TrEMBL record, chain A:
Residues 44-234 form the Copper-binding protein MbnP-like domain. InterPro entries: MbnP-like_dom (IPR046863). It comes from the Bacteria. This is Copper-binding protein MbnP-like domain-containing protein. It comes from Winogradskyella thalassocola.
Automatic annotation (TrEMBL), chain B:
Its main location: periplasm. Pfam families: CCP_MauG. Keywords: Heme, Iron, Metal-binding, Oxidoreductase, Periplasm, Peroxidase, Signal. The keyword Protein transport does not apply. It is found in: Periplasm. This is Cytochrome c peroxidase. GO terms for molecular function: cytochrome-c peroxidase activity; electron transfer activity; heme binding; metal ion binding. Heme c 2 binds at C226, C229, H230. Its cofactor is heme. It comes from Winogradskyella thalassocola.
Amino acid sequence: MNSTIFKHYVYFFNIKITALVLLIGLGFSSCSEDLDDNLTPTIQITFKFTHHWDNEPVTNSSLNILQFTNANGELLSIERLRYIISGIRFTNSANESFLLDSYNLVDLTSNKGLSYTVQTEIPEDTYSVSFTFGLNNEDNSENYVDLNSESFNVPDMMGGGYHYMQFDGKFINTNSEEQGFNYHAIRAVDNAGTDPTSPQDTFFTVNLGTITVLNRTEIEVKMNIAEWFTNPNLWDLNEFNQMLMPNSAAQIMIYENGQSVFSLGEVTQ
Amino acid sequence: MRIRSILIVSFIFSFLSCSNEDITYEPVPQPLEIPQIFSDNIIAPVIPNDNPQTAEGVALGKKLFFDTILSSNNTQACASCHSPQNAFTDITPTSVGIDGIFGTRNSMPLFNLAWNYNERFNWDGTALSLERQAEEPVENPIELHSNWDNVISRLQLDSEYPELFKLAFKTSTITKELTTKAIAQFERTLISANSKFDRYSLGEATLTPQELNGLDVFLREDKGDCFHCHGNPNNPLWTDNLFHNNGLDSAFTDLGLGSTTGDPNDNGKFRSPSLRNLAYTAPYMHDGRFSTLDEVINHYSEGLQNSSTIDPLMKQISQGGVQLSQDDKADLKAFLLTLSDPSFINNSEFQN
């Protein structure tokens, strides 16, 4: 064996050894992933928020047009709609919960936040799924720079924290004139001023029902906007249209009407 | 042997060319100094990936901002309508260009521009970035009335600019894009965050009872309800940077955002200006129609004009507005003036 051939032999021998080590490493690595997969397969979950007026879809191209009639018979338009959902919870049959300590600002007006992929992956299972409309009191007392940047705050003298929802539009009033309304949901407050008090909580839990998550899963959450005006309180926009934030009675009615606003849409995998 | 010689010569050439690259000056990064009141409360400013802040870029941008070379007859600069003493606006309802012709819009004050997250600039949202905003006034016939080819030629022939561009952008070949990048870098440094109210928020100053009541009027939905469009103590920009019809007219001579989007639903909408530095930025509104803050407050209290696109956040339109008492008006004005920042207009780094 001459020296050149010997050098080539050593070179290829080294390559073979390196390749073998890499293959063994890859083999261990993939075995390890399989093991993990078998124990806790995790699913990426995306929530898709859609909006409707009863059975008619509402998108941002539906805005600014007097085209919806509420249960009280008032013709109205939607000009701005944005709201917070938070505290998404997945509870399995063994009553184990995965609580996602995060929130999402859904903004129909600018088409932002309509799709929200949760940052924590969930193991395959069947779950009861719920979320909070707005922010619970603990979360509502935090300082969120992204929500501040959206000017979504509630002033301190009205309890502080953040809007749960800003829903603005116009309606035809009893004088047949266009008039603005600001259907803003916040934590109900009395005694607006230096020492506001809250008569009751007005965030609420939305139960979407049971969902089996197997693969990458998309869950449609439907908001029926018409329901904000329907039950149990037949909403009269001529009576309740603006300056609802410091009106605790109006806030409690919004809270009550909100219970039937959300529903589960399509679940795709 | 011949091959070896070629290789050696090639190596020397490549080394020399590397050497030339190596001596190219690297601009020094100069990130924005973000005030605590901003970092505590709002998300980070918008800095384009292709135009990072550098010391040389900012210095060049400042020189350009104050240089009349951008106008066709060398009589006006950006600063002619955006004066530091007026928080980078001017004192006339609309601004006069190099030919003595007045435009149709009030010059917008310039500060905290990097926090305009939607990046729609101008009253009507025509400019989709700060760099692009700097393009238009140069060629506007009632502003600097020049054209970019001429401006670039003059900059290129100048005794200083080619070297300054080389320091800022590593090339002495001047372009419109690099010129507006430099101006935008300077404009992003125009940060105002040291008003009396900022210091109050940081626990470093106190407000008078009148100013505090004015804040209450500003924030109460059943009084001024200014906060929905103009921010709040947790949003120290004091604007939402969005577009609203605030009830100035029942019929529009200027369509505002509508002229940009072509959507009739946007007619009569203009970008909310910040309420900072109101002490220096009169007259007010997109056409400078109000000379004083009192006139502005009276407008929202009793002067609203109804129209199809008026923002639903405007209240009691049939009575003309929110009907503030004289005391509440005076208190609101006192509060608004706490948002002015004398250290901003006197900042030597922003002067020519």
